[in-house]
Amino acid sequence: MKxxxxxxxxxxxxxxxxSCTEKVDIQLDESYTRLVVDGSITSDTLAxxxxxxxxxxxxxxxxxxxxxxxxVSITDGTTVFPLTxxxxxxxxxxxxxxxxxxxxxTLNITLKQAIGGNTDYKATSYLNHVSxxxxxxxxxxxQWGDKGFYEVKVYVQEPPTVDYYRFMIYKNDGLLTDTIxxxxxxxxxxxxxxxxxxxxxxxxxxxxxxxxxxQGDVVTVEVDNIGKDYCNFIWNTQSEIRGANPLFSxxxxxxTGNISNGAIGYFAAYSCxxxxxxxx
Amino acid sequence: MNPSDxxxxxxxxxxxxxxNGELLIGATIYCPEVQSGTVSNYYGFYSISLPQGEYTIRxxxxxxxxxxxxxxxxxxxxxxxxxxxxxxxxxxxxxxxKRGDENVKATEMSxxxxxSKTINKIPALLGETDIIxxxxxLPGVQSTSEGSTGFSVRGGSPDQNLIILDEAxxxxxxxxxxxxxxxxNDAIKDVALYKGDIPTAYGxxxxxLLDVRMKDGNNLKMSATGGIGTISSRLxxxxxxxxxxxxxxxxxxxxxxxxxxxxxxxxxxxxxxLYFYDLNARIAHTLNDRNRIYFSAYMGRDIFKNKYAExxxxxxxxSLRWNHLFSQKIFLNTTASYTxxxxxxxxxxxxxxxxIWKSSMDDxxxxxxxxxxxxPKNTIRFGASSxxxxxxxxxxxxxxxxSLLIEFKLPRQYAxxxxxxxxxxxxxxxxxxIKYGVRxxxxxxxxxxxxxxxxxxxxxxxxxxxxxxxxFHTWFGFEPRVSLVWILSEQSSLKGSYSHTVQYLTLAQNSxxxxxxxxxxxxxPNVKPQAAEQIAAGYFRNFSKNQYETxxxxxxxxxxxxxxxKDHAMLLxxxxxxxxxxxxxxxxxxxxxxxxxxxxxxxxxxxxxWSRSWRTIQDINNGKKYPAPYDKPHSVAVVVNYSxxxxxxxxxxxxxxxxxxxxxxxxxxxxxxxIVPVYSDRNAYRMPDYHRLDCAVTFKGKEKPDKKWHHEFNxxxxxxxxxxxxxxxxxxxxxxxxxxxxxxKTYLFSVIxxxxxxxxx
Lengths: 280, 761
Hints:
Chain A is 11% helix and 41% strand. Chain A is built from 2 helices and 16 strands. In chain A, strand 5 and strand 6 form a beta hairpin. By secondary structure, chain B is mainly beta. At the A-B interface, helix 1, strand 1, helix 2 and strand 16 of A face strand 44, strand 45, strand 49 and strand 50 of B.
């Protein structure tokens, strides 16, 4: 839970009222190429995906180049799940694999050609348990924005352990929160052990066609117990993408992930649970 | 008794402005027969001891007519002097209140003084004259961000400036997220900024002392000063309580942008609140020849409220001072002061996430400062101070029955800060004066409180809770300071200084401009106090009977135990704040040039600063050296004021500086479906250069000898040529083609005109 965000929004609204923004040309240097790892293993039974790409110059203006021909596997210490490359840079497990809570998973990558001076990369992640949601509710707020917003609310007894959550929202099985900037992540510092009692975890803008809800539409909320490190990684990545201003932002800095040998990105293990609500 | 003492007698007294009874600070008392003199102190008091004989004593203060007294000195004498302001006689002469050759002759260096009249003439954002914006135009002083009242002195951070208002510490000097300062210029008498050679009486900050003094209040007649401006209105009342004995002053300012909101078309805006106010009050009372007391108080607050959130923050300060003369040679000032800074933030009840969040800090302080004038060659100052700091870093809890938020409270922290100092200003010869002294300081963490211990990776491993008010840790500081002036001629001098300063409190501010939510934290068993050593040398030369002052100063500053914050640090509501700190060292150097013209139809100054500031901090930038956040190599300020006619004055200022250092991406990666920047080394790039011109014209009402009502209109333009100075530069993804990234800049202000009407009677 970041209270700063509310203040941020309030103050930035004030500033934006008087400020202007325009495109500028800034000359940038290029630094060396690094491996980028982005993927996870979850408690769902499905083909788990790891994406391998490389960094590019900032103004590259094309999709990130995939890294092909690598040997990729995930292990829980006893079983090894090999990953096969299904398209350039995308590696997947068999669709029968499911992670289980209480295990530590290790990702091993061996590249065909060295990137950033290394061919071998490794990451480990612990898979936490997650409590099942009691229910999900939708509350329409007609006065917000042009056509109103739906608040997506969750009801669950939060356990007394220290936990970190990510909330993902689906409309009719299509993931709405499909980029990292849209993920709602929070720690339980300010509500540890409480009943969440309808805390809002997402807002669906009814002026946006993809988020607009009609009668019969089904909204699904997925809750992931992601652990402290991944939560920090997401927060910090979100803040770097959002950009800096002189009031609230510390100096920009690369986000530390959990991949060895200076690679960028994160290999996450987490358990998830879901609950649905249809629009009436 | 020593026979030589028998022949010496003391002349002492106070120096006042005859027009309103205000005490004059820094007026010159000079005796041509012995080619020596002194200067009146903060309370207008002076004392000079001379052998028995006949003397001429000349009292002078720029902007006032000189007074000469013939004295037959056969016993101790008390001479209270009233000087008459020249402005009443010569309206077209523009004057700043300082003695003519102080620039050259005073031992202090790296000091700039401005009085409220000078500050009033400088064009300001939205016509709100502001002392902090004015000092940012001086060499060696930089603003931290566009329009911000945060300032950096000689490469230091904004929290390294000790700001005091009538001896009470100010912890947050900003209104409206930093665009205005809490100082209402109407109530201010003068301001002095010490950039290096900080008097031994003061400490606790590394970079500077900003000493702000309120007006005494007119003790001869009742008068009012006020103004109606574009965003605020002001009113000050002052007058005698007992004629010649005591005076009062009360002053208020309130902004009223929100008073027009009920007229807004958008219904959402009508209930919004957005304003700030300041209240200043002061009472000065003369009990008798030997005792005077002063009471000063300040209160100010910012209020912001809309449908979704509310926020309030502000300072409260009060000080009670007692001047006592033990004899004509021994002056004592004792001050008791209180200061507090409080903020609260919240969202309305009714939601699961409704909350309130509060934080505060306050200080209780006492100090005694002695000045002894044993003979014209020595001025001895000594004293001691003690402060009790009480930090309340924050509490949050749910608001309303629906809220799921539990109470989260960071424990209070208490500390004591003590200091004792001794210094002497000694005239070795008529041409050489040395001021030397030392300050001893101590900082004690006291219970009750909880303190954590950390491992090498800055993770908390253990905690200790103290339940009683017991001292559990002490830091000591030894702070020697020396300065000298060597007079080369009537018009020129060389000065040098060395100063050591120690800072026990740090502001947890990670951004360049900061916000009202930033909290101060104390040195502790985990946090070493920061310490700075500075050497400076300067050449001072005045021309044309002190009409023109010029100076060149060079400095080198070394800082140890510099505190910075780890990447992506969490500084608010974090019980493990100390785990977010990283330590290292820093150094800064620079050259400062200034040409100032104080009198005549054209007045003003030009300053140029070349400076660098560097830091090396563990874990930051891989431990490599990087430019400090406020490193601006080149900086220029031109401030001019011109009397077109006796009734029309024009003024302008132009500033130029290298852009602040900044970290930009040198690559990108795709993570979670979005483009994430991959960065250069810390501060490897620079923001675009900053420059801006502001202009103002003041039309004064017709003056007649018996007219009591004086008024003027002031028209000002901020950023006259509409330079789009970058406030921030960000790198964003194109909405239509997410593979395309580009840079955007945000600028805050285009041309901003303002009109202000001022009056006094």
